[in-house]
Amino acid sequence: MTWDKTQPMVSIKNVHKAFGDLKVLKGVSLDVMKGQVICIIGPSGSGKSTLIRCVNALNDIQEGSILVEGQEVNDPNLDKLELRKKVGMVFQQYNLFPHKTAIENVMMAPIRVLKQDKATAEATARKLIKKVRLEGKENAYPGELSGGQQQRVAIARSLAMNPDVILFDEVTAALDPETVGEVLRTIQDLAEEGMTCILVTHEMAFAREVADHIYFTDRGVIVEHGAPDTFFNNAQDERTKLFLSQIL
Amino acid sequence: MNNRPYKTDMPVLLTVKPMSGDKFNFKLKLWHVFPVLLFVLFYSTFGFADAGPAKSSVFETLVRWMPLLLKGFLFNLLISVLAMGVGTAVGATLGLGQISQSAWVRKFAWFVTQFFRNSPWLVLLFFAMFLLPFEVEIVGVKIPLPDWLKATIGLSLPVMANVSEIVRGAVKSLPSGQWEAAESLAYTRTQTLWLIILPQCVKRMLPPWMNLYSILTMATVLASIVGVSEVMTLTGQVLSSEGGRPELLAPFYSFVLLLFFAYCYPIARFTVHLEKRFAVIS
């Protein structure tokens, strides 16, 4: 199947997902165009993290279709490695490799997975560490970095694979309030450079500023979606209104 | 009463000053072995000075046989190192089998591990002694299997099973986020295991592994039951060649005990030290 840039880069259609008897996603559909930044918001347990974890096949789905650049993810013969080279992911708990330094964390996957030579990978890694404003921390181990710094290393690590789209799974939820800003700023830089981003977040002000489109999920379905201004000023659904009134 | 910190008409309510705890916090050091050893040797010489010209003193007898007993002890150490090596190599493979993606491999590895982990070491030793042939032929070359080698193989079986569990436990103890992060960076499963997971496990595995080694070292004396010329066997032979003098029993077996203690206790201390250090880092 060929894919061109006029089609959605990620196309989620009628996705159902259950953990045992617990239905987490009940028919979710959304499209993400190249260069778009979308934010998924909603109460805890509404299935938003599960949804983005399905995009890079960390979770499988029972029904529906997820196309990433035209490639079907819900396919038993899927080449997961090829998919994951295109789709980066940043986690709530950073998940840096604690036995490797910051720069090793960033350059290891390009060397081992993309088979880049060490010098190229290292040069790229240094640039990326500079980009996330961590110059001088190249040789620090994750345990020696603050949460915000670790999360920025994790973003650099994801960028090093040169992905087409990056999934951000509540990346500021585990951070101290004073370090949230530095991570959001890094993500904003990426958004402005045209990186396609799918964010699950609780940072409403940030979502409003950075997103091209907001999706509100509750109990496994998308309740409402729209451009940030319309969505925040003129929410239609009662559940959305209630959620926004609680959080804003 | 005047020197008490406070006065009261009811002395029962006075606080009791606890006895100094320092005296009782006795921590064993390696050098403590030597006073004990000297005491045993010295004590054993009393009362035998006038035992007649035919019998030498207990102390002299022990010193005379000491080189042989030490050689026997070195043999125990050789068996322990070899059994640990073989057990670790096979056990690590088995442990990885227990986390294999193939259900059959996983079940097989689990079964082997549980079987050998829940069998008495002595029974496994007997099995190895009587089931293994006295020589094996590999591509036309006959390789003899002496008793001590069979014993080594026998002892490596429980080690293998325990190492398998240590590996499985260490891998399972890592947070699943490490797997997910590696997966989402498109590492293959093999790469994830060897580059991300196992390097982090080494630290976690080292203390239990060393613990296992010291248990194994102490278990090498089981080989005496199947006739391997290790330190216990030699001690028995020495005692009978000395005519079975009952006053020799305690000094000789104390000496053997002390040899093992002097070897195993530092390992135990070092294990505790490692556990503390790693606990702080992770």
Major beta sheet, strand line-up of chain A? 6-7-8-3-9-10
Q: Averaging pLDDT over every residue of chain A, what do you get?
A: 93
**What overall form of chain A do the CA principal axes indicate?**
globular
Report how far apart the termini of chain A are: 44 Å
Number of domains of chain A: 1
Beta-strand fraction estimate of chain B: under 5%
**CATH homologous superfamily label of chain B:** MetI-like
Unreliable runs of chain B, pLDDT <50, ≥5 residues?
1-8, 18-24, 49-53
Largest interface, Cβ cutoff 8 Å = A-B, 26 and 19 residues
- How many domains make up the coordinates of chain B? 1
Which sequence of SSEs, written as H and E, runs from N to C of chain A?
EEEHEEHEHHHEHEHEEHH
Low-confidence blocks of residues of chain A: none
Broad CATH class of chain A: Alpha Beta
Query: Mean pLDDT of chain B, as a whole number?
Result: 85
Structural class by sheet pairing and helices of chain B: mainly alpha
Largest β sheet strand count, sense and barrel closure of chain B: 2 strands, antiparallel
* Name of the CATH class of chain B: Mainly Alpha
Which strand-content bin applies to the residues of chain A? 15-25%
Radius of gyration of chain A over alpha carbons? 18 Å
Description of the structure:
The complex is a heterodimer of chains A (248) and B (282). In chain A, 37% of the residues lie in helices and 24% in strands. By secondary structure, chain A is of the alpha/beta class. Chain A has helices at residues 48-55, 80-86, 102-112, 118-131, 147-159, 177-192, 204-210, 228-233, 238-247, and strands at 10-19, 22-32, 37-41, 63-68, 71-72, 87-90, 165-169, 196-200, 213-218, 221-226. Chain A contains nine helices and ten strands. Chain A has one domain (10-247): P-loop containing nucleotide triphosphate hydrolases (Rossmann fold). The mean pLDDT of chain A is 93. Chain A has a six-stranded mixed beta sheet with strand order 6-7-8-3-9-10, sandwiched between helices. Chain A has a four-stranded antiparallel beta sheet with strand order 2-1-4-5, with helices on one face. The radius of gyration of chain A is 18 Å and the shape is globular. The longest helix of chain A is centred in the C-terminal third of the chain and has 16 residues, at 177-192. With 282 residues, chain B is mostly helical. Chain B has one domain (57-275): Orthogonal Bundle (MetI-like fold). In chain B, 69% of the residues lie in helices and 3% in strands. Chain B contains nine helices and two strands, in the order H-H-H-H-E-E-H-H-H-H-H. Chain B has a two-stranded antiparallel sheet with strand order 1-2. In chain B, a hairpin with a 2-residue loop joins strand 1 (135-138) and strand 2. Chain B starts with 32 loop residues before the first helix and ends with a helix. The model of chain B is unreliable at 1-8, 18-24 and 49-53 (pLDDT under 50). At the A-B interface, helix 2, strand 6, helix 3 and helix 5 of A face helix 6 and helix 7 of B.
